[in-house]
């Protein structure tokens, strides 16, 4: 009987012979679920083509299981509403056996029902319920979900009819793929009269019926990517008109008000857009996204648990290592105690030895202080010499200031001398720094005396090297002064030579003259440009020529 009814509902031809052949050798009593499943998969489900009424199939399955599993306690919903909740559960449940609906999908379903009732969603109440649910199990079975909705826990203040209408609305949307439904007027194609029809919008079709009980169907409007919908102006006494254009027909429809008209236009346009894009209905696509998100979160949770296990194992290993280290430290502490005893004994012996060495150190320190005083006196003399050199540097600087306008050789010599004097000043500053360091070494503790003595010897050597460099700088400065005197003499000789040449040119007749800065008197202008001599010079030359001419005559 079960096999025959399944074949009838699924539009599959029933084969009684195959049934008898399959169960011929089974004489052990009633067939279990696991025993019937191979026959169901091979001879019934594999032959299903998809052209069957899914609601009738669900009703048959409901008939088989409801009587045994449905709660006997009174509920606020009817058996028909319980059936619809059961079908919705099958749609929203996880794809594993036994079927359960997780808290996220329960929240989604209860929100849809609450919105359909026009009530406010109580998020805080559901959060408390979710916490209590998570502590005990992962989700609810179909019968527990029916008890939850039928108990009215999340629909307090609503009557049975309101809850039933909300369940039906959610059932139509999620199971029957009803995107929108309602009464509107439709214009006939033959008699051109307007009739009220109940329209039902689905992902690829708009069906219209005589009334909302869906018993008498009057026609369908097949939707595809080529369809379009547009608003029409009011005419013939009809308002809120819009037009649905398909490939073969055009349908004129009048909504009850402007709001309904706009809602229907937007719903149909959205449906056509989904058809063009080849997308699933919104609620199915949303369910798939929620499922993918849960799978992603579950994978992340599993990865986190794996990492926690690894960390716990690593922590246990660390604890073992720490225990081993603790034991090693205890053994090391025991060894350290023995060594401490030995160290104290050695320390007593060393103190006596250090007392003798300390006396010797005091004598050595007195000698070092005397040597430091002697070196300080020598350093004072050296500083006096440096001050004298500074005075000489100032005098030389004044002489160089007077000779700023000298030629390039004189400038080169001056720069060289200035550089040497700067080096001398740097050396002097370095010597003063060493002097201060030597004074600080006197104040150091007794434990550092030996090291400071070595440093002082090194600094004395550096002081000697610096004094030699200072002497070298003095020699270089003297050489620079000698070079300066030589350059000065050369300049004087060049000046004398220039003066003698100017005298010769002044007595020489002709156009040759020494190029020198001209006078401020105006120059003569010739056909070839400015003349090489002034008007006064021209008159002087004319008088000279006239005198020579008179003498010759």
From TrEMBL:
Keyword line: Cell membrane, Cell projection, Coiled coil, Cytoplasm, DNA-binding, Membrane, Nucleus, Phosphoprotein
Gene3D superfamilies registered for this protein in UniProt: Pleckstrin-homology domain (PH domain)/Phosphotyrosine-binding domain (PTB)
Subunit structure: The SWAP complex consists of NPM1, NCL, PARP1 and SWAP70.
One cellular component term from this protein's GO annotations in UniProt: lamellipodium
GO-annotated molecular function: DNA binding
Stretches assigned to coiled coil: 283-504
Gene behind this protein: Swap70
Parts of the chain that traverse the membrane: none
Compartments in which it is found: Cell membrane; Cell projection, Lamellipodium; Cytoplasm; Nucleus
Signal peptide: none
Organism, as annotated: Agelaius phoeniceus (Red-winged blackbird)
Described function: Phosphatidylinositol 3,4,5-trisphosphate-dependent guanine nucleotide exchange factor (GEF) which, independently of RAS, transduces signals from tyrosine kinase receptors to RAC. It also mediates signaling of membrane ruffling. Regulates the actin cytoskeleton as an effector or adapter protein in response to agonist stimulated phosphatidylinositol (3,4)-bisphosphate production and cell protrusion.
Entry protein name: Switch-associated protein 70
